[in-house]
Amino acid sequence: MKNIILNDVEPGINPDSEELSRIIIERIGLMPKKKGSTEKMNQVLLQLYEKSKAANREKNPTLAIMTVEEMALYAGITRQTMYDYLKRWLTLNIIIKNSFIDRNNKVVIGYRLNGATLENAFEKCQVRVKNNLEQTRKFIVELQRIVKNEKIKQSAVSEHIPD
Questions:
Q1: Which of 61, 67, 76, 162 is least buried, going by the fewest C-beta atoms within 10 A?
Q2: For residue range 71-102, what is the model confidence (pLDDT) as tens digits?
């Protein structure tokens, strides 16, 4: 889970969808690290949700897919910069890569929410973070064991060294 910075920000009283989506993006580490690079990354999340709802309503899964170009447009950044941000979205399992063939028999590659709703996608993100933390806990237990064994070994060696 590289380059993900969790921020402990809270919404104000009676937040609207704009504010709350911005808070969510910031809390789960999807906001750009550089201040002022884009303040509209939350629009990508909102649009992914709207597209997912439309796809479910119309029973057409291709409607849920957003291309990188679309995402960049909503975020107010270049396509290339959006590719850089996508890595974090994918790492957290908020979105998944998807492709389909359009009416012109052209393959369209894009991304969609990793679930039918924002909540479903977040649950997948939550599992990813929990798994990461659980693996880290195992590393910590192993580190403690290794440090203890190294100290025992070191003291055993120093006891056998004649003065």
A1: 162
A2: 999 999 999 989 989 999 999 999 999 988 87
